């Protein structure tokens, strides 16, 4: 039996790539997104590829939208196998330049949006006796860098929330994977919240220079779900940075990171 997959932020970037990749494997796919034009375009691409697909307008800050998405999925397929918490925005800024309003927006979308979505679908997973959550975090949640305070903090919270879900839901046969990629080629900069134009330019430069592609991240996610892996770091640089943090002496790690951070901030 093919899987039924729901992907938030599924109309572009990694979400769209995941939708097309799952569909290519025969899955039925529902994409949720706030961008109606992109959502319809992606839906037509999925249908043209032969997929059983659905698009729903879904703002993850709205419990009503998430309820509507859940109802549409259950009416169409009567079950849900995988929920991908992918929707989110980027943020950057120094401690003194990031407003509380910016912090609240990032928290509401990137963390509480994931909580709302997970709460909406977990009951169906338990009733079915199975299910799987994929939570998209970031390398920033494992090895933070300067001038991205709100983003680092929220993505770290996503990792902790995912670990909590893993421990809490295992007895209900519900799996959890948290994904922590470094910069990869995507449209993330479109959503960047910052009052410092130089940081917008810097983030866009990192995205343009990235060797990792959305397809590589999507392939790693599907492989991770198949194998039931919890923490995914899809690229070698991110994996090395995380292991250095875990196993090297604290003073050595911070000395190295301070040197790299100083060079980055000077640029």
From TrEMBL:
Pfam families: adh_short. Gene3D superfamilies: NAD(P)-binding Rossmann-like Domain. One of its GO terms (molecular function) is oxidoreductase activity. Transmembrane segments: none annotated. Keywords: NADP, Oxidoreductase. Belongs to the short-chain dehydrogenases/reductases (SDR) family. PANTHER family: DEHYDROGENASE_REDUCTASE SDR FAMILY PROTEIN 7-LIKE (PTHR43391:SF14), RETINOL DEHYDROGENASE-RELATED (PTHR43391). This is SDR family oxidoreductase. It comes from Neptunicella marina.
